[in-house]
Amino acid sequence: MTPAELEAARDRVIDDVVADGLSVLFCGINPGLMSAATGHHFARPGNRFWPVLHRSGFTPRQLKPDQQRELLGYGLGITNVVARASARADELDDEEFREGGRLLTAKVQRWEPRWLAVVGVTAYRTAFSHKKARIGPQERTIGETRIWVLPNPSGLNAHWSAAAMAQEYAKLREAAQASGLG
Questions:
Q1: What's residue 155's pLDDT?
Q2: Catalytic annotation on 30?
Q3: DSSP 73
Q4: CA–CA dist 74, 22 (Å, integer)
Q5: Rounded to the nearest 5°, which phi and psi values hold at 149?
Q6: How much is the pLDDT for 105?
Q7: Which pLDDT band, with edges at 50, 70 and 90, does 177 fall under?
Q8: Which of 166, 126, 170, 121 has its CA nearest to residue 147?
Q9: Taking the CA of residue 98 as centre, how many other CA atoms within 13 Å lie in the half-sphere pointing to its CB?
Q10: Fewer CB near the terminus (10 Å): N or C of the chain?
């Protein structure tokens, strides 16, 4: 992609990968420009979502961003807190996150996944006004949907290694299976 092609993708919205009754609906912060340009979630080279998803046991092989619809066959889906694409998440303001939290709540009520996995604790804190939230399961639910906050797989989140992220994602997978939900 050229810089001009990436810039042209700014503010685009990409389709959710979603269906009724998913086991886990992963929720990114917002699409990056590469994702918006390609129409595929977590498409930027260096984003660790797809490798971590595989290493944690959610998928039997590492999928590529253009294979995102295969997630539905595993009972998994993807959406975002904020729908519009930007070069960096810090281009979003708190009101966008709060509105995104309201819209995400409506999506979860509509689609009824068993688990909502928000990949980014800061985004979760802002979107749901829960300033002290930590990585891991949350007490809050949306209807019957449980919430788990995971580390952001962006390559910019350097204080989390791929191995440590995979361990954290695996905790969610194990909890979902243990409770008969996975």
A1: 67
A2: yes
A3: G
A4: 9
A5: -100, 130
A6: 98
A7: confident
A8: 121
A9: 6
A10: N
Q: How many residues does the chain have?
A: 182
Q: Please write the tens of the pLDDT for every residue from 96-113.
A: 999 999 999 999 999 999
Is residue 41 part of the annotated active site? The answer reads yes
Residue 140's CB is within 10 A of a number of other CB atoms, namely 13
CA separation for the pair 86, 27 (Å, rounded): 16
3-state secondary structure of 38: helix
Share of the chain above pLDDT 70, in %: 96
How far is 150 from 153, CA to CA, in rounded Å?
Answer: 9
Sketch out the chain's domains with CATH numbers: 16-178 (3.40.470.10)
What is the C-alpha separation between 4 and 37, in angstroms, rounded?
A: 11
What's the confidence (pLDDT) of residue 181? 45
Q: Which of 40, 41, 47, 80 is catalytic?
A: 41
User: Count of CB atoms within 10 A of residue 111's CB?
Assistant: 18
| Residue 142: Cβ within 10 Å count | 17
- Mark out the alpha helices in the chain (DSSP H runs): 3-8, 33-38, 49-55, 94-111, 121-127, 162-178
First to last CA, the chain: 37
Contacts of residue 95, defined as CB under 8 A and 6 or more positions apart, other chains included, come to none
